[in-house]
Design a protein that fits this description.
With about 400 residues, the protein is an alpha/beta fold. Helices cover about 45% and strands about 10% of the residues. It is built from 14 helices and 11 strands. The strands form 3 sheets. Strands 2, 3, 4, 5, 6 and 7 form a 6-stranded parallel β-sheet that branches. Helix 2 packs across helix 13. The radius of gyration is 21 Å and the shape is globular. About 5% of the residues have low confidence.
């Protein structure tokens, strides 16, 4: 009997050790596999240094990115990593001064751009392996609140390197501070899919109070608000969805039409009096497919006064290269005008991109070589996004 109990004790220790190794290693392994950097056909970007002129020009820009998903992963953004696409240290090298951090709360299995149902939930398993608290395991709202709190914690522990921006007033203060502190980063919180409301209108205020300011209506599946471009029905706005749009109008919430079905896209633009964004997308003129904007949709966003964030990954630009990104930007500018185009990288969005956040100077140089003026490159790399948020975030408390 003593030998049996000893064997059980050893088996328990082995199991505990195995589980510890699993929870330590599995999240990082998934992160490395899902968030990758494409191999350049002409060698690594590090072997093709940016010219001194382009590097100096880039250093003088206020770069902004409309979409990234690092809050989903187990990395501590205050540390420096050799994998994934971003952390604060890498952002300070040459990355965005203003970053929209988007929270993902549910992703279906078998993900594709054509048809997904809502019957599976890969984020639950990611939450379990990354040891998110139990209240997030079965609640999409709680996952959203957890990621908002995570961004707040990162900011609080960043030694002042990251500040969370909630209002025009916050953004104005941030921009003034950044003139004296060039490495300062501002973060705006976004929601990727309003299934996190769990069908309850009261959760709009809950998410707004948690810091969310940009609201994507759908992600990869239809929800209680609207049809997704990648859902089963791909329908329009629901009655609840029309109420959501009206609430955003009253509270200065910024609507994000990325992933939205064509009919819901049109309905939102017919209902809203406020400019919208499409935070991360491509254009069908350079990369056909259901993920990307048609010419008619580009025209409607421009007429709305909105902003189109061009993505960096293969779904947006067909091949993850700097040339493909520049081609999509050129097409969008030719169609919508220079004032309506920005960056929407989808860094850390389970994507393969041509560079991590430190590679943005290569994009600056490529845009200059493509014939954009310095002023135009400044707009594309961040000026348009900063102007948009200064106009459309909630005003905040007046100050000196």
């Amino acid at each position: 009997m003593a030998r049996f109990r000893f064997g059980l004790r050893i088996a328990g220790l082995v199991l505990a050790a195995a589980l510890t190794l699993f929870f330590l290693l599995a999240p990082g392994s998934v992160d490395r596999r899902m968030n990758r950097i494409a191999e350049s056909p002409v060698g690594s970007l590090e072997q093709q240094p940016v010219s001194e002129q382009a590097a100096a020009f880039h250093a003088g820009l206020v770069v902004a990115d409309l979409h990234a998903n690092p809050l989903l992963w187990g990395r501590n953004l205050g540390r420096t990593y050799s994998y994934g696409h971003m952390d604060i240290t890498r952002m300070q090298v040459s990355g965005p001064a203003l970053q929209v951090f988007s929270a993902v709360t549910k992703v279906p299995a078998g993900l594709n751009y054509t048809r997904n149902d809502a019957d599976s939930d890969l984020v639950r398993w990611l939450a379990l392996t990354q040891l998110w608290p139990p209240h997030t395991w079965f609640s999409l709202r709680n996952r959203a609140l957890y990621q908002a709190a995570k961004l707040d914690r990162v900011a609080a522990r960043s030694d002042g390197r990251l500040v969370v921006v909630h209002s025009v007033r916050d953004l104005e203060v941030f921009l003034r501070r950044r003139q004296a502190q060039p490495g300062l980063i501002g973060g705006i919180l976004a929601m990727e899919g309003l299934h996190a409301l769990e069908g309850d209108a009261d959760n709009l205020q809950t998410l707004f109070d948690a810091g969310y300011r940009v609201f994507g209506l759908t992600h990869f599946f239809d929800n209680e608000v609207a049809g997704s471009a990648h859902g089963v029905t791909q329908g329009g706005l629901t009655p609840f969805g029309r109420d959501v749009v009206a609430w955003m109008e009253r509270h200065n919430g910024i609507l994000d039409l990325a992933h939205l079905s064509a009919s819901a896209f049109d309905e939102v633009l017919a209902l809203t009096g406020r400019p919208v964004i499409v935070s991360h997308t491509g254009v069908q003129g350079t990369c056909p497919g259901p993920r990307n904007l048609s010419d008619a949709q580009i025209d409607r966003i421009a007429a709305n006064g909105g902003l189109i964030g061009i993505g960096f990954w293969e779904g947006a630009v067909c091949e993850p290269t700097i040339d493909a990104i520049v081609e999509a930007i050129q097409y969008a500018v030719a169609r919508a005008g220079i004032d309506h185009v920005a960056l929407g990288s989808d860094f850390d969005g389970a994507t393969t991109v041509p560079f991590d956040v430190t590679g943005l100077p290569w994009l600056t140089e490529a845009l200059l070589k493509a014939g954009f003026s310095g002023a135009e490159v400044g707009q594309l790399m961040g000026g348009n996004a900063v102007r948009f948020f200064l106009m459309h975030l909630p005003p905040g408390t007046p100050g000196p």
